[in-house]
């Protein structure tokens, strides 16, 4: 609480104005990791629609990968290879190398900040197995995931928050960023270009608008799993940040690749970490068969998620599902013993008990794939700088974490690589932003009435007295996405979803916001969030329709093979034309971006 | 050294203004034992104030003391004494429970069991005391 | 243009006035509590259970007890421990349910004052007590008095 | 509108729905002078959570009902509220565990300023948290590029209190906290405990000093409401007792 930090806030026409060197949107793992770098170096504010500790990073369970080699031989090269292979070679290999190399420091940083990792008998950070992580390029599973019981994400989130408290980072909690302000500036070569000049946020408590003028803006708003019905994601993961960037006309990369985690509690989607299988749990079908032996003979249940999820759905589709409706498979932990479950997997043990009434110590747990992680998002380079096309950097704009696409995950993220991603690239975003704002750049002037768009958007929604319920539209979107754009997709199913979405976009214009008040109007915000969900679902489906091959998280029943010839490239989706038309083809333009390959040539992916 | 936030600055010198009411909190053994401990503590305290004053009358004269202490021997006061002893016994036993809970982790974990032990001991003690005391009070 | 003051959460004022008595109060409550169990139960037993119980209490009974320094010390110790214990407990309760301010100060002052007065009074009574005051009716006095 | 397949195909008797009445304590600061109780009838399944009921009300009956929530499975700490008179997370309270023959009472947690319906101002809560210096303070530089060494036993010493999700269920169930809101509260003590007993930390004394305050641990009257309320199963009162003893000893 030092006085040189003193902020002057001014109010113009009811809109509050703030000025910061760096504004970070999102206080999850990526946002706070960036803040820890940025805070000491520049005047920084973190805007978050949730209290920082409510962010969904806290839900992550299993671990964070780093080739520390604390318990067995390991190397960051192997980690790089696994990441690339896990991502079905759609990974940008320069980024994957950075991820794997900087992983070690990232884990050590966290430990030094206080994170209570589980320990080995000699007091070092303990490590466990995880899907797709292998020794020596696929020979056998390796212990690479650093963990704290099954609460790794919780510990990361708490530790980062604790360090933000230590550093006195300024948080604007329960502020919803709703717009990125771009200003037309002279590009220096006679043309003009768009440059970020600030952020517009809505203060939930009062209903007032705030404009944060900033030299650099970092997006760290997390994923958008709520486009699906069955998901491990929080209610608040509605992809606002990705949506904002999209609406600004910036591209989105690889949106068709969504990860379905094999082991969500059946019917609920609450996650049971892959760490369970890392500790030895086994997937079984109705007859008790360990079916993964058939599909991935070497690493069996520890195959990457896309493969396991697909096998599970196939088992159920072929009638070998368990339960009265034969619609799930079983995760068998009974042989692990109460001791391992209580000490290494206490939380998921409790989830199964609480929400299904099933005690994993004695009974196998019903599981089915659950929408989990968006591989795609805002395209960035390895410096976490946002790109406006395949190569052009938007100066002063950064993105990190699940909302970004570097792309280290390619078409399928390996378990434990995301907690790593948020730390490595969160740190990079923060550090590079500081470097940028301290390099002599000035504030970009704000346009007249920077909050105008948001104000109009909110006014329209608040005054809307339509007949459509927000929840009904959202539910239909989620149900349809689950049916048509989940683990298996076909052009038919995708066409159908696209049609449904078009209809829903029409209906969205006629919604009713019942709460007309200013204070804590969550009804209004749900309407705004639904808008983002519809936008993003539309991009996901359009991108998926366009990729006529099967790769990683994107499995086309009608094109079951990987097609490197045509599709060994990233999808880039651009908003063009009429943003508000219901028909996707009117305003989505799809393009490609080459994959960076440094040392591993694409091979067939077998485990 | 603290994270700052821009929402709702609180002025800690002034207690938060609470909206009234809501339902009664349904605490368990721990809370109700504390409520009883507090009530009995206050009751005993006020009795003690009076008791010191009346006992001090011994310094005035035997007559004065006997007059006042005589009122302790009426049936009504006799019942009051039952209540007083009940309060003291609960407060004492529960006080010991609190001390155990403070210093012994087994007791911290098993405070509910200890609460029922306190109740049981209270019943036993009162069974020993009440008949005897009432016989004294109501004899002749 | 209105200028709003920097909105910040003020830190809790840390008024560390003088020695921190809370810890010692807490310890005292427990230490005195343990001793009081013996003292109070002994007191109650002797006064209410033995013989005719409450019916037997009169000037003579008290005089009989306080002729013995053992009971003198017993009662004085009980007086001090219990009164301070109770007063400190009451102080906690007053702090809990009143806000810092005049009312709280008055209540705490009253507690302090009454405690001191009663401690002094009680102690004096026990130690300056004359079990055989001259001129009192003999039947009221303890049996060992020359008058009795 | 399509219905989920689960509802239409399942014949299992256990998945039968029934009507549950919720009595919710509403307060809209822009309209109400005082909070008021409002009742809602909701179709629920036994395995539904109270959070599902709140969502059904918000999404199907009254969009203005306001509450916080995010993860929906008990790890983010957004939705602590008083359910049938006890502090619970709405997302961890299943209908089958409640007596549905009577209305289910839902109201905001107690002791923090009420903002709207089930939402309270959490700032005083976080202010107390920040005051106990809830972050690792170790002056010794670790070997560059290496972790600090900590034995399994040392790590286990403070495991329980690392689980805290800062939901405030404990602090707002504490009768001492209700009295004037000045007591640090169990959550702050839990988070101090997490560092006081971390073998890597060097500033335990400072935190013990902070908690040896007029508003510190000594205000705890061991009422155990906090322990009963904690959705993470943290032995809160035990942690407080350990801090008290550390203060008495003068060292952790
Ligand atoms: C159940 C589960 C388990 C997982 N387990 C693992 C694991 O074991 N290992 C692993 O590596 N990965 C795991 N993951 C993935 C990983 O946890 C996430 O991808 C990662 O935590 C995302 O972090 P983030 O910082 O990008 O986003 P989040 O933590 O989701 O944070 C998003 C932040 O953005 C803010 N925000 C969003 N919109 C707005 C807006 N409009 N305005 C202002 N702020 C906004 C939110 O308030 C929040 O603070 C798991 C994920 C889930 C769901
Ligand atoms: C007989 C043996 C007694 C024991 C073992 C005992 C024990 C205790 C203990 C341990 C406490 C602290 C409670 C806490 O911190 O939560 C306490 C509080 C208290 N005691 Fe006693 N006590 C005894 C007798 C008395 C007497 C004789 C009085 C009255 C004069 C009394 C009045 C109080 C009061 C007013 C409190 C405060 C209650 C509160 O803060 O809730 N106690 N007692
Ligand atoms: S100790 Fe438990 S109840 Fe208290 S804030 Fe932490 S998790 Fe919530
Ligand atoms: S509820 Fe309060 S009184 Fe102590 S035991 Fe818990 S902090
Ligand atoms: S919604 Fe996250 S704890 Fe209940």
TrEMBL record, chain A:
Residues 21-419 form the FAD-dependent oxidoreductase 2 FAD-binding domain. The modification Tele-8alpha-FAD histidine is found at residue 56. InterPro entries: FAD-dep_OxRdtase_2_FAD-bd (IPR003953), FAD/NAD-bd_sf (IPR036188), FRD_SDH_FAD_BS (IPR003952), Fum_R/Succ_DH_flav-like_C_sf (IPR037099), Fum_Rdtase/Succ_DH_flav-like_C (IPR015939), SdhA/FrdA/AprA (IPR030664), Succ_DH/fumarate_Rdtase_cat_sf (IPR027477), Succ_DH_flav_su_fwd (IPR011281). Flavinylated by SdhE, about 5% flavinylation occurs in the absence of SdhE. Residues 474-607 form the Fumarate reductase/succinate dehydrogenase flavoprotein-like C-terminal domain. It is a peripheral membrane protein. FAD binds at residues 26-31, 48-63, 240, 402, 418-419. It catalyses: a quinone + succinate = fumarate + a quinol. The active site is at 305 (proton acceptor). Its EC number is 1.3.5.1. Pathway: Carbohydrate metabolism; tricarboxylic acid cycle; fumarate from succinate (bacterial route): step 1/1. Pfam families: FAD_binding_2, Succ_DH_flav_C. Its cofactor is FAD. It is found in: Membrane. NCBIfam families: sdhA_forward, sdhA_frdA_Gneg. This is Succinate dehydrogenase flavoprotein subunit. It comes from Agromyces luteolus. The lineage of its organism: Bacteria, Bacillati, Actinomycetota, Actinomycetes, Micrococcales.
Automatic annotation (TrEMBL), chain B:
GO terms for molecular function: electron transfer activity; metal ion binding. The keyword Protein biosynthesis does not apply. Its cofactor is heme. Its main location: membrane. GO terms for cellular component: membrane. The chain crosses the membrane at residues 35-53, 82-101, 113-130. Keywords: Heme, Iron, Membrane, Metal-binding, Transmembrane, Transmembrane helix. It is found in: Membrane. CDD domains: SQR_TypeA_SdhC_like. Pfam families: Sdh_cyt. SUPFAM superfamilies: Fumarate reductase respiratory complex transmembrane subunits. NCBIfam families: succ_dehyd_cytB. PANTHER family: SUCCINATE DEHYDROGENASE 2 MEMBRANE SUBUNIT SDHC, SUCCINATE DEHYDROGENASE HYDROPHOBIC MEMBRANE ANCHOR SUBUNIT. Belongs to the cytochrome b560 family. This is Succinate dehydrogenase, cytochrome b556 subunit. It comes from Agromyces luteolus.
TrEMBL record, chain C:
GO terms for cellular component: membrane. It comes from the Bacteria. The chain crosses the membrane at residues 27-50, 70-88, 109-129. GO terms for molecular function: metal ion binding. SUPFAM superfamilies: Fumarate reductase respiratory complex transmembrane subunits. It is found in: Membrane. Pfam families: Sdh_cyt. This is Succinate dehydrogenase. It comes from Agromyces luteolus. The lineage of its organism: Bacteria, Bacillati, Actinomycetota, Actinomycetes, Micrococcales.
Automatic annotation (TrEMBL), chain D:
It comes from the Bacteria. InterPro entries: 2Fe-2S_ferredoxin-like_sf (IPR036010), 2Fe-2S_ferredoxin-type (IPR001041), 4Fe4S_Fe-S-bd (IPR017896), 4Fe4S_Fe_S_CS (IPR017900), Beta-grasp_dom_sf (IPR012675), Helical_ferredxn (IPR009051), SDH/FRD_Iron-Sulfur (IPR050573), Succ_DH/fum_Rdtase_Fe-S (IPR004489). SUPFAM superfamilies: 2Fe-2S ferredoxin-like, alpha-helical ferredoxin. It catalyses: a menaquinone + succinate = a menaquinol + fumarate. Pathway: Carbohydrate metabolism; tricarboxylic acid cycle. One of its GO terms (molecular function) is 2 iron, 2 sulfur cluster binding. GO terms for biological process: respiratory electron transport chain; tricarboxylic acid cycle. Its EC number is 1.3.5.1. Residues 154-176 form the 4Fe-4S ferredoxin-type domain. Residues 18-112 form the 2Fe-2S ferredoxin-type domain. It is an enzyme of class 1 (oxidoreductase). Its cofactor is [2Fe-2S] cluster; [3Fe-4S] cluster; [4Fe-4S] cluster. Binds 1 [2Fe-2S] cluster. Keywords: 2Fe-2S, 3Fe-4S, 4Fe-4S, Iron, Iron-sulfur, Metal-binding, Oxidoreductase, Tricarboxylic acid cycle. Belongs to the succinate dehydrogenase/fumarate reductase iron-sulfur protein family. This is Fumarate reductase iron-sulfur subunit. It comes from Agromyces luteolus.
């Amino acid at each position: 609480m030092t006085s040189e930090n003193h902020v002057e806030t001014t109010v113009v026409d009811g809109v509050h104005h703030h000025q910061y060197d760096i504004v970070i949107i999102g206080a999850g793992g990526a946002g706070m990791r960036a803040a820890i770098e940025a805070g000491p170096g520049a005047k920084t504010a973190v805007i978050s629609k949730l209290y920082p500790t409510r962010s969904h990073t806290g839900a992550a369970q299993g671990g964070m990968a780093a080739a520390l080699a604390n318990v067995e031989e390991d190397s960051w090269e192997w980690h790089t290879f696994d990441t690339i292979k896990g991502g079905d070679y759609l990974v940008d290999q320069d980024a994957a190398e950075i991820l794997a190399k900087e992983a070690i420091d990232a884990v050590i940083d966290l430990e030094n900040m206080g994170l209570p990792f589980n320990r080995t008998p000699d007091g070092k950070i303990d490590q466990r197995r995880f899907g797709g992580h292998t020794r020596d390029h696929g020979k056998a599973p390796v212990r690479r995931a650093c963990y704290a019981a099954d609460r790794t994400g919780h510990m990361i989130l708490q530790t980062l928050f604790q360090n933000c408290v230590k550093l006195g980072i300024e948080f604007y909690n329960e502020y919803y960023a709703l717009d990125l302000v771009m200003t037309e500036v002279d590009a220096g070569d006679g043309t003009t270009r768009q440059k970020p000049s600030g952020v517009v946020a809505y203060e939930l408590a009062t209903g007032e608008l705030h404009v944060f003028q900033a030299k650099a803006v970092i997006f760290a708003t997390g994923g958008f799993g709520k486009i699906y019905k069955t998901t491990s994601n929080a209610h608040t993961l509605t992809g606002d940040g990705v949506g904002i960037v999209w609406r600004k006309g910036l591209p989105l990369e690889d949106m068709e690749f969504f990860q379905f985690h094999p082991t969500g509690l059946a019917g609920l989607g609450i996650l049971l970490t892959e760490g369970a299988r890392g500790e030895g749990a086994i997937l079984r079908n109705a007859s008790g068969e360990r079916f993964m032996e058939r599909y991935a003979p070497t690493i069996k249940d520890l195959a990457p998620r896309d493969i396991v999820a697909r096998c599970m759905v196939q088992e159920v589709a072929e009638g070998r599902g368990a339960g009265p409706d034969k619609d799930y498979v079983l995760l068998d932990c009974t042989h692990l013993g109460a001791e391992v479950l209580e000490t290494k997997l206490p939380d998921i043990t409790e989830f199964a008990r609480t929400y299904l009434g099933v005690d994993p110590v004695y009974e196998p747990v019903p599981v089915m794939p659950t929408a989990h992680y968006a591989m795609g998002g805002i395209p960035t380079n390895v410096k976490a700088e946002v790109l406006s096309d395949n190569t052009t950097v938007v100066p002063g704009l950064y993105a990190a974490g699940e909302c970004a696409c570097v792309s280290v995950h390619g078409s399928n993220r390996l378990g434990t690589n995301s907690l790593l991603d948020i730390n490595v690239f969160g740190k990079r975003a923060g550090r590079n932003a500081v470097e940028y704002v301290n390099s002599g750049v000035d504030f970009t002037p704000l346009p007249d009435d920077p909050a105008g768009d948001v104000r109009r958007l909110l006014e329209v929604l608040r005054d809307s007295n339509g007949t459509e319920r927000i929840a009904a539209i959202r539910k239909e979107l989620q149900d349809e996405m689950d049916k048509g754009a989940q683990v298996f997709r076909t052009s038919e199913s995708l066409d159908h979803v696209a049609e449904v979405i078009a209809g829903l976009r029409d209906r969205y214009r006629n919604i009713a916001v019942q709460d007309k008040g200013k204070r804590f109007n969550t009804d209004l915000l749900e309407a705004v969030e639904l808008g983002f969900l519809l936008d993003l679902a539309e991009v996901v489906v359009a991108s998926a329709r366009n990729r006529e091959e099967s790769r990683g998280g994107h499995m086309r029943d009608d094109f079951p093979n990987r097609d490197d010839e045509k599709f060994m490239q990233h999808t880039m989706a651009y908003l063009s034309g009429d943003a508000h038309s219901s028909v996707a083809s009117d305003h989505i333009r799809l393009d490609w971006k080459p994959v960076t390959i440094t040392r591993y040539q694409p091979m067939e992916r077998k485990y | 050294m603290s994270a700052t936030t821009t929402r709702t600055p609180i002025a800690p010198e002034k207690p938060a203004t609470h909206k009234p009411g809501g339902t009664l909190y349904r605490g368990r053994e721990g809370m109700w034992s504390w409520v009883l401990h507090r009530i009995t503590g206050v009751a005993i305290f006020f009795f003690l104030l009076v008791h010191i004053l009346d006992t001090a009358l011994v310094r005035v004269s035997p007559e004065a003391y006997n007059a006042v202490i005589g009122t302790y021997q009426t049936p009504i006061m006799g019942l009051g004494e039952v209540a007083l002893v009940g309060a003291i016994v609960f407060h004492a036993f529960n006080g010991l429970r609190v001390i155990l809970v403070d210093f012994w982790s087994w007791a911290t974990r098993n405070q509910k069991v200890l609460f029922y032990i306190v109740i049981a001991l209270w019943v036993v003690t009162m069974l020993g005391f009440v008949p005897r005391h009432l016989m004294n009070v109501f004899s002749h | 243009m209105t200028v709003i003051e920097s909105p910040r959460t003020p830190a809790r004022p840390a008024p560390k006035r003088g020695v921190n008595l809370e810890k010692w109060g807490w310890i005292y409550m427990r230490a005195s509590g343990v001793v009081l169990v013996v003292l109070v139960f002994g007191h109650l037993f002797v006064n209410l259970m033995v013989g005719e119980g409450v019916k037997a209490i009169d000037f003579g009974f008290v005089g009989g007890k306080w002729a013995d320094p053992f009971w003198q010390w017993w009662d004085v110790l009980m007086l001090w421990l219990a009164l301070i214990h109770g007063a400190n407990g009451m102080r906690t309760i007053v702090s809990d349910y009143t806000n810092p301010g005049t009312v709280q100060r008055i209540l705490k002052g009253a507690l302090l004052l009454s405690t001191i007065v009663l401690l002094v009074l009680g102690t004096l009574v026990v130690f300056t007590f004359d079990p055989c005051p001259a001129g009192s009716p003999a039947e009221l006095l303890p049996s060992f008095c020359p008058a009795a | 509108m399509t219905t989920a397949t689960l509802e239409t195909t399942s014949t299992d008797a256990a998945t039968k729905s029934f009507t549950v009445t919720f009595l919710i304590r509403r307060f809209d600061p822009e309209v109400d002078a005082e909070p008021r109780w409002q009742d809602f009838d909701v179709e629920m399944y036994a395995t539904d959570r109270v959070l599902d009921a709140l969502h059904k009300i918000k999404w199907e009956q009254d969009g203005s009902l306001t509450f916080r929530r995010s993860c929906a499975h008990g790890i983010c700490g957004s939705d602590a509220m008083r359910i049938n008179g006890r502090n619970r997370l709405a997302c961890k309270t299943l209908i089958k565990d409640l007596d549905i023959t009577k209305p289910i009472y839902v109201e905001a947690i107690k002791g923090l300023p009420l903002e709207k319906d089930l939402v309270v101002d959490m700032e005083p809560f976080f202010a107390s948290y920040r005051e106990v210096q809830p972050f690792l303070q170790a002056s010794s530089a670790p070997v560059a590029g290496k972790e600090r060494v900590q034995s399994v036993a040392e790590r286990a010493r403070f495991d329980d209190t690392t689980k805290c999700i800062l939901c405030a269920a404990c602090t707002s169930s504490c009768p001492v906290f209700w009295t004037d809101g000045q007591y640090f509260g169990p959550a702050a003590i839990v988070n101090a405990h997490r560092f006081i007993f971390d073998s890597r930390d060097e500033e335990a004394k400072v935190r013990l000093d902070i908690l040896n305050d007029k508003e510190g641990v000594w205000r705890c009257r061991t009422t155990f409401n906090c322990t009963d309320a904690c959705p993470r199963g943290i032995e809160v009162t035990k942690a407080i007792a350990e801090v008290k003893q550390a203060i008495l000893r003068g060292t952790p």
